[in-house]
């Protein structure tokens, strides 16, 4: 790693300290499968989650929030208006919004809803797995429900181009995570296969990014800090597994490692590769 | 502690034994974030939870129940009628009802819904954090989403006055828990900061109070028994944490301690302070 | 055990290997209490869960799925159409469907909804506890919310007759599990009382059966494999409990044991009793 990566890891570290001291409020309109995990992960790193989806109150909630997380994991027609109302209000008040287009490739309903959200709301970060981001980018994808295909080739190119196209930060999670603001490309090598052995690690990553967004002026660092935190915690949790322990214990240990993540962890454990915009990707 | 506190702890202990032998059925209309934790906590102490919110069946469900828990954590317009139908039927059948006005200070929607619930339903216990109860009491509050402000001053006065005003038992949870039936004031000193490191400990406390209500003729003892159980279990779970364990393991251990809570635990671990109504508070 | 039971255990073992290599996609329309647990359990044995209930997308989702799980645990009017649309499409495409009629005896709303589902959809397996299956069979039952009565007598007769009557496989879970295709009767002796100390073990069993159904041509073996897997994992998790551990740790260990269940586990641990159709039951 060069000086630049060290600087970025230091920045991630400072952002995490900020979260712990300032306790940002993160409004979620999210799915019913992982809603509890997402709330817990926000608290685990020092934020305050609030889950609220009724159209009668989302404006009032988002007004008090430091950022807004929109996750379409169990998309229901009745929540789309709430997403748009909250998102527009967030934009108006300069509160950053992150989108997780869960399973966008699985149905026309999800695809068209995301298109509508993109028309109505300006997102600071869009985070998805390779299948989701490819679909968003207009490529043909093999989607299996809400899970990703495993083709990680060209992740960097897609992240960078889509970020440019949409004027947002794009984060693609997978074996290697690719993050771009349309200019520079950041590749995170942290991670652990066992993160796919439980549901919700993708949603939790988005909620962590949302928490970082609440205090960061630069969305790309929020995306890096959030994505890397999950990758490193995933590695550490795996190291702590003992005999006879599988995905159930892994889930508890993952939350432990997220909760105990401290200011030194990024610098000690972060594996980041940076390609500046001047370089071809 | 004086004789009176010993008697109360003994009463809590007996109530818990009753739950384990009689297995009361606790109907919940609750939020989507902690619904699983609330169900598990009821089973853990010996009750049977049933979560049902469709207006087509809440009357049939509550009719079979020993108590009703109403929690507005992820309030949705479509559930308000169900809350009222179930609450009125419970009142008619003398089935006790407990209310957790989660985040009542966060939005006008929640505030007005709670006002409506208070008009339509007679609650045996209202349990909230300091921000929620202050809001209910008509005081100006600093609310942060669904979490509390930390001002615990005057908790006793507010609990007692609000209990009088609404003709119910009021339980304020926090560093010290204040419980009053409008006459006497009970302060519980048990608790552990780490209970705030996971979502749902407030909701779970309400569900535990609801379970005690199912078998108790005196609501105030149900409120004391339920609130203290969570406080003591929170302490014990903290003592069981090992190296490298954080909020994920704490959650599992908390449920363990709730599940293993036995008839001696109240008497050994309970820290209760009683001020009888004749005394000024 | 005779040759026949050894053969069946071997078949269960092979089905599990198939799941791990082929990763079937399991569409769920399920309840909000245990939706996270059901998703995790499908991943834990090697499948991919997708939870989707909006009527705008259930046809698109089920089309991609290997099986469909319908669970009425927190039945809401708004989801009934989705269940029917998805179920009919699944039937049309020969995708197997499993039904968990949670709490069918608790309310007329649930009972009539199940009757409607039975009219519209052909189920490969119906799984319930004794109260639920008795209610479905038209017997008078003592139901307590969504939990079962404990009368296990005649389970075999009821399973076999109901299976015949509805032309489906019926699985009754309890102290002994009774499974029948209307012809033969299979009794599983595996299990552990502590499985009742947490919510969701019934729902998870149904989701596991659903995952087996995704790759099995013979529904009855999917029902046996799924039910027995939960019973054995429940036993193993109990053996792993240490001092001071209760239902919270048990839940994590149960998921561990489900996740670590391997091709030898059925053969080593399965306790199955088979009565061929020629024998009277």
Relevant terms:
homotrimer; alpha/beta; UDP-N-acetylmuramoyl-L-alanine:D-glutamate ligase; 9-stranded mixed beta sheet; 11 helices; 50% helix
Write the layout of secondary structure elements.
The structure is a homotrimer of 281-residue chains.
Chain A: H1 3-22, E1 25-29, H2 35-45, E2 48-51, H3 58-64, E3 67-71, H4 77-92, E4 97-100, H5 108-120, E5 125-129, H6 130-137, H7 155-166, E6 169-173, E7 177-180, E8 185-188, H8 201-213, H9 219-240, H10 247-260, H11 265-269, E9 272-275
Parallel strand pairs in A: 1-2, 1-3, 3-4, 4-5, 5-6
Antiparallel strand pairs in A: 6-7, 7-8, 8-9
Helix pairs in contact in A: 1-9, 2-8, 2-10, 3-4, 6-7, 8-9, 9-10
How would you describe what is shown here?
Chains A, B, C: This is Hydroxyethylthiazole kinase. Three copies of one chain form a homotrimer. Chain A contains eleven helices and nine strands. Chain A has helices at residues 3-22, 35-45, 58-64, 77-92, 108-120, 130-137, 155-166, 201-213, 219-240, 247-260, 265-269; strands at 25-29, 48-51, 67-71, 97-100, 125-129, 169-173, 177-180, 185-188, 272-275. A nine-stranded mixed beta sheet of chain A has the order 2-1-3-4-5-6-7-8-9, sandwiched between helices. Chain A is α/β, with parallel strands linked by helices and 281 residues long. Chain A has a single domain, classed as UDP-N-acetylmuramoyl-L-alanine:D-glutamate ligase (3-Layer(aba) Sandwich), CATH 3.40.1190. Helix content of chain A is 50%, strand content 14%. In chain A, helix 2 (35-45) links the parallel strand 1 and strand 2 (48-51).
């Amino acid at each position: 790693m060069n000086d630049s990566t060290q600087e970025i890891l230091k920045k991630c570290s400072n952002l995490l300290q900020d979260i712990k001291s300032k306790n940002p409020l993160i409004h979620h309109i999210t799915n019913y499968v992982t809603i509890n995990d997402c709330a817990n992960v926000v608290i685990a790193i020092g934020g305050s989650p609030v889950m609220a989806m009724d159209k009668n109150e989302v404006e009032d909630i988002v007004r008090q929030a430091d950022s807004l997380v929109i996750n379409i994991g169990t998309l229901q027609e009745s929540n789309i208006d709430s997403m748009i109302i909250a998102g527009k209000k967030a934009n108006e008040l300069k509160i950053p919004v992150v989108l997780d287009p869960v399973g966008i490739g699985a149905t026309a309903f999800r695809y068209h809803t995301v298109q509508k959200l993109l028309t109505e709301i300006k997102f600071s970060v869009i985070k998805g797995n390779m299948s989701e981001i490819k679909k968003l980018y207009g490529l043909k994808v093999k989607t299996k429900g809400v899970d990703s295909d495993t083709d990680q080739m060209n992740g960097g190119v897609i992240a960078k181009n889509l970020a440019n196209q949409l004027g947002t930060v794009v984060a693609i999670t997978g074996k290697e995570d690719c993050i771009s603001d349309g200019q520079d490309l950041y590749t995170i090598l942290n991670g652990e296969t066992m993160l796919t052995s439980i549901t919700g690690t993708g949603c939790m990553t988005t909620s962590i990014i949302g928490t970082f967004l609440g205090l960061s002026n630069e969305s790309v660092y929020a995306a890096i800090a959030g994505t890397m935190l999950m990758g490193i915690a995933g590695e550490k949790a795996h190291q702590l597994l003992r005999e006879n322990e599988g995905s159930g214990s892994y889930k508890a240990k993952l939350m432990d490692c997220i909760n105990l993540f401290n200011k030194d962890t990024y610098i000690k454990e972060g594996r980041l590769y940076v390609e500046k915009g001047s370089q071809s990707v």
